[in-house]
Specification:
Layout lengths: L2 E7 L3 E7 L5 E8 L11 E2 L1 H15 L8 E8 L5 E3 L9 E2 L7 H10 L2 H6 L8 H10 L3 H5 L2 E3 L1 H10 L3 E3 H5 L4 E2 L4 E2 L1 H7 L8 E3 L4 E2 L4 H7 L7 E6 H9 L6 E6 L3 E7 L11 E4 L5 E7 L3 H11 L7 H9 L9 E3 L17 E3 L7 H25 L6 E5 L6 H11 L3 E4 L4 H13 L15 E5 L3 H20 L1 H9 L1
Parallel strand pairs: 1-5, 5-14, 9-12, 15-21, 21-22
Antiparallel strand pairs: 1-2, 2-3, 4-7, 6-8, 10-11, 13-14, 15-16, 16-18, 17-18, 19-20, 22-23
């Protein structure tokens, strides 16, 4: 029997998922790593802790599997991380992740003075992007910037240390804001803005690029044979679409974990004059278009902390309270912008807020409004995609939220569409594993994954609930737009 591994480097953990070739999960293991907020607006992680977690996850997920039965490993990773690294592979800085907002001023200046950057790179001008982060480093004389030989993402950092290779997949490169998505090369004009040289970035390659010869030390820690092929894969977004089967026009993937996103594949870059969505390269002839929300499952964790005293109230208990409240949470609306917001506003200064609170609202209403608010933010981005001509004919859902029947039913009611859920919620890992199978000649095409995705439930929309949500979303959309300038005033205070 043979297996393939999907290694998913997420925001809060490294997950190693061992799959049979038909998509069934044989084993999986997850190792968490901390997220640090040393200063308000900063969001950092230790690259060496992340490397250790990835190696440990690989080792523990394969402890009952014969090494010789593993045909390869595909890799998925969260976007927008930035590490200053030296020639020897030592990190000179923490990893600044997508949630790091310290470069808000630089992003605002870029948006005002260089809107053409978006047309070339497909990356909205926002502090999430390594481009903005590099400008912040330059403007603040950040010492690691001056000492760095290379500027890399977490995935590049690990692969350089494990294989000595200086490569980056298209979708991770595209998410930097430094990559020309029309030519699939680093964009010289944008590099000049950032003040870095092409030699300080790694060579962009397609997601099928194969690496062999893992260092002896890393191979021993991973539990894998040093000759096991690793396929570079892509970022978690397009791989989640692939892993869930949302490949054709009209097929939409919605993923909600710590953060959230809605995406579709396209055969050309889909750029937006209003710059509400991203468009990133995946292969030479496939692009991924959509938008991310900063605020997914972490909103529920905030509610949990808000209502807990010495003993934490389980999220399941709060969800049960929410289930006892009617759809619409008693006309209570929550704007879920706890960490600012990316799409469709791209406003790092946005704030969370409850709209419509009355004395009749309790914990269940607030929990339900928070869950609905996260989904309204996804619908808001989905509306921008529809404006560009992307219909949501079929919706697939994945990520941690897909384990909550109540939350997925809300999604069906809000979009008024049937929602299809796979058996495994690890769609990014399965997408990465499938790219590995395709690259190594075990399957004929990327699109053929559709016959190898074990599916579970389908959720049909409730028409009565949809009408309630339709009316509430009009208010959500109106209020969220009007408050953007007030968010900026609050931020300056």
């Amino acid at each position: 029997m043979s297996y393939v591994i999907g290694l998913d480097l997420g925001t809060t953990s490294a997950k190693s998922v061992v799959f049979h070739k038909n998509g069934e999960v044989a084993a999986e293991y997850e190792v968490a790593y901390p997220l640090s907020y040393p200063v308000v607006g900063h969001a950092e992680q230790d690259p060496l802790q992340m490397e250790q977690a990835a190696l440990e996850a690989l080792s523990l997920s394969t402890r009952s599997i014969d090494r010789e039965d593993i045909v390869g490993v595909g890799i998925s990773a969260a976007m927008h991380s930035l590490i200053c690294m030296d020639e020897k592979g030592a990190p000179l800085s923490p990893s600044m992740i997508w949630a790091d907002a310290r470069s808000a001023d630089e992003a605002s200046t870029l948006k005002e003075n260089h809107p053409d950057v978006y047309r070339r790179t497909g990356t909205p001008l926002h502090p999430m992007s390594p481009l903005s982060k590099l400008l912040w480093m330059k403007n603040n004389h950040y010492e690691p910037l001056q000492k760095a030989d290379y500027f890399v993402s977490v995935k590049e950092f690990l692969l350089y240390r494990w294989f000595g290779e200086k490569v980056v997949d298209y979708s991770i490169a595209a998410a930097t804001g430094l990559f020309n998505i029309h030519e699939h090369e680093w964009d010289e004009e944008t590099l000049a803005l950032a003040g870095i040289r092409r030699e300080q970035l790694f060579q962009p390659v397609e997601p099928t690029y194969v690496m062999k010869g893992m260092s002896a030390e890393s191979a021993e820690k991973s539990g894998l044979d040093s000759g096991t092929p690793f396929v570079i894969g892509g970022s978690d977004g397009p791989l989640a679409n692939l892993g869930i089967g949302a490949i054709q026009p009209g097929e939409t993937a919605i993923t909600i974990g710590t953060s959230g996103a809605i995406r579709q594949f396209s055969s050309e870059p889909l750029l937006d004059d209003q710059q509400e969505v991203f468009s990133y390269s995946f292969t030479n002839d496939l692009w991924i278009t959509g938008g991310p929300s900063n605020n997914g499952g972490l909103v529920l964790k905030w509610i949990q902390q808000l209502f807990s005293n010495e003993d934490k109230i389980p999220v399941e208990e709060l969800t049960k309270l929410a289930s006892e409240v009617e759809a619409g949470a008693g006309n209570l609306i929550f704007l879920p912008y706890l960490n600012g917001e990316r799409a469709p506003f791209w406003n790092a200064e946005a704030k969370g807020s409850f709209i419509g609170l009355t004395p009749s609202h309790g914990k269940g209403h607030m929990m339900r409004a928070a869950m609905e608010g996260v989904l309204f933010s996804i619908l808001h981005i989905g509306s921008a995609l529809e404006r560009l001509g992307n219909k949501h004919n079929k919706i697939y859902a994945s990520g941690g939220f897909a384990r909550s029947e109540m939350w997925v039913q809300m999604l069906a009611d809000i979009f008024n569409k049937r929602i299809d859920i796979p058996v495994s919620h690890q769609s990014s890992a399965w997408g990465a594993a499938w790219v590995a199978l395709y690259s190594l000649g075990h399957v004929d095409s990327l699109a053929s994954i559709k016959s190898s995705i074990p599916m579970k439930e389908q959720y049909e929309p409730n028409a009565e609930n949809h009408e309630k949500y339709k009316a509430l979303f009009e208010v959500y959309e109106s209020v969220s737009g009007k408050l953007q300038t007030d968010f900026a005033k609050l931020h300056r205070l």
